Give the backbone structure.
Amino acid sequence: MKRLMTLFLIALLMFAAVGCQPNSGSSKNKSEASSETAASETTGVPSSSAEAATMIYATPDEFSFDDDESAEERLQRLIYEPLRTPKAEIKADTVLQYPELPTGCESVALTIALRSLGFKLEKTDIAENYLIHDEDVMYGYAGDPFEEDGAGVFPPGLTDTANNYLADQGSDYVALNTMGTDFEDLYKIISAGYPVVLWTTMYFTPPLIEDYGYFYGEDVYYWYHSEHCVTLTGYDTETGMVTISDPLTGIVKCKAKDIEDIYNKTGKLSMAIIKGSPQQNWQADDYDYEIMG
């Protein structure tokens, strides 16, 4: 369902249609996508020196939190406090899913998020060693991300996957399911230096909602054609743009309203990685935390 359906040139035209443009120095063509070096080692940078001079690069250590504050408490405080700064960006790598993971955008988006926090992992580490599999996409990946006919996974399953990895590292970061969070509230997470994994569509085209869905709690979340996953790494409320590290095309800047529209139509699907209490004896679903906007 998520296979690459168009040439790179057509993809760029689609970007233009929804207000997305490759960030300076970060666009890749299809041949570059097959190179591991090009896919994993290019770091996104601002598109101009003027932007570099005014952009605030956020890191988790820049803001004061209580030492004993849990990740859940920290996230609640971020969401309900005013936005800290009108614009911020997290430095993130470009990691492209092709050729190894043609339907593994979720694993790659998570990899981008983890690498932005300083974790050292290769493109396929999550998919090979930590990804939870399940026929119900709410709780695990349906199919095989290494194959063209793989399907995908929604936030609860990827949150558990992330926590499997973080627990294995003995990390004091926690992945939290933020499904239902209003789009602009995600900026508050970014402003504190924490990346957000965001569900959207391939090339940010309008979603085509399928007629079957998956229960989660009392709600039903519908599968949609061209389901895709990216990492939200920056925002600028003054220009109305957001920065995204896209496993298909690299780092792009998009009109926030266009991305928000897709986000709302597809069910407000997202997850975040927050520093908090150490994860000892972690079990799946322990941190299955949900915020409703």
